[in-house]
Each structure stands twice: as C-alpha cells, then as structure tokens.
C-alpha cells in the first residue's frame, strides 16, 4: 500500500467542509452538513461518498463512527468536536496492526 500524502490543503478542506456541521450516521454526502466525519474525509480524498475512506485505518474509523454517532447537542457541535479528530485520522491506513493495539 502506498503511504498517503497529507497536505495543508487536506486540513484546510476538513475545516472548510465541516463548517456546515456533520450529521449523525451516514448522510447523503451531497453538500456540507449532510455527511458524517468519514464521508467528509472520503470526499476530500476522492473516495466518492464512502464512509470508509481509504486513508483511514479500520480501527480508527470504527472509533470515529462511534464518536460521530454519539449524542451531540447539534450537528455544528459534532463538527466542532470532531474537526481535530478528522485531521488526526488522516494517513492512519498506513499503520500496522501492532500500532493500533
């Protein structure tokens, strides 16, 4: 597997696209505010509207889904709370199994 190259543009895109909020569960991924944190990352990396971005490790993705689907006070609060986590997820697909335990 080729390592994922993370750029400042990816981080900026996460910040910009999450301004409209993030939905609970897998959303429609049509416009900002209608997708979950995993779909946000997929959109940035051209993985269509998938909720399984290719640059995110499975265990990290699973934890992110739990966080995303938790009870937040609003979609905007969800986005504000998950923005840094979304950035931290980038490139974790390159981790080995030992690094996630």
Write a compact overview of the structure shown.
The chain has helices spanning 8-17, 37-44, 58-69, 75-89.
Structural description of this entry:
By secondary structure, the chain is mostly helical. The protein has one domain (8-100). 45% of the residues lie in helices and 0% in strands. Helix 3 (58-69) packs antiparallel against helix 4 (75-89).
Compile the SSE list and pairings.
Elements: H1 8-17, H2 37-44, H3 58-69, H4 75-89
Helix pairs in contact: 2-4, 3-4
Total count of helical runs of at least 4 residues: 4
Please outline the major beta sheet: none
| Envelope shape | globular
**Strand-residue fraction?**
under 5%
- Rg over CA atoms, rounded to whole Å, is 13 Å
Number of E-state strands:
0
Give the H and E element order.
HHHH
Helix content: 40-55%
Task: Name its key features.
4 helices; globular; mainly alpha; 101 residues
